[in-house]
């Protein structure tokens, strides 16, 4: 099992050293001099930096990485889109450019974002996938938000009208990555940006009811109020299972009995977690305590438990989220870099708990994971000790996720796991 992650030998807490100043290297003031990158000393130096200094370094690293990602996914492909999705494809580059624009107000990033979205729009016209992460819904959502920021009302109307033409069929599953929950998340995204009735409750309510109806049907066979299947397996995690579906349902106005079913489902998961505090990948896999990913295991479930603690004000959910965060701290330095099943995604567990509790140690832990990546990710990827993902420049599998995390670390109170948290 240890071959999945690097041993975390970072101190539980390192106070910032206000007397530590950045050194001038080659006439370029502002870059910290690291004599032996990838050592314990170099990592401790990053951890000791005042947060303002560290955040500047993280932002520089993110913007440099963004340029590389644009070249690799857009320039070298001669602006051809093979995979349009946000999860592993070209739309992820557009999403990163928009994130950069929000941070720096660089209009070139916004223009290029819209250019890439236009190509993804053409590539996705025949897609039956309806979700933010893997479907045409994500293209229309990113396109509408970018168009609004560019002041192009005609383009905004086009993307919004295109989204409204997307239909969820009986054949779609209920999960987040490819199913109804992922479609509903896009509706929430649009309402969050443009007003709560942009996609009215009359459009989303029937889908919410269908998800709950399906969950109750399967839940009757076991001790869990709601249960869902994806390709015959009853998953628990964020991408395909209970955590992702519950997370989306908690964003909607539910009846009291529906809320009780969501609450009961999450408490069922807590009761049946592993002694370590980690969670099974599925009902069928309750003996293998191995995965500590957003998609399967403690990280994605912890984010949902944080949301549940906010909604219900129930200390059991907060404590379970904190217990899951301990698993992420001890086993979450994965030998992968991305958001879905890598260090970048796992850092968001600590950011979510810091946002909810204000406990500075959680910010430190997020900073520690980011510093680990800043200090040695490129070296570990080059030597093959860390896996770059099947799509190495994407957000959810590759270094795009690391760039996204670095940008979020600049304003940690505003950080949200992309395409999952609001």
UniProtKB/TrEMBL annotation:
| CDD domains assigned | euk_LANCL
Q: Which UniProt keywords apply?
A: Metal-binding, Zinc
Superkingdom as given in the UniProt entry:
Eukaryota
Q: Which GO terms describe its molecular function?
A: metal ion binding
Q: Which residues bind Zn(2+)?
A: 295, 340-341
- Indicate whether Chloroplast appears among the record's keywords: no
Q: Please provide one cellular component term from the Gene Ontology annotations of this protein.
A: plasma membrane
Which stretches are annotated as coiled coil?
Answer: none
Against Pfam families, the record matches this protein to: LANC_like
**What GO biological process terms are annotated to this protein in UniProt?**
carbohydrate metabolic process; peptide modification
Q: Which family does it belong to?
A: Belongs to the LanC-like protein family.
The molecule here is called GCR2-like 2
Q: Which organism is it from?
A: Perilla frutescens var. hirtella
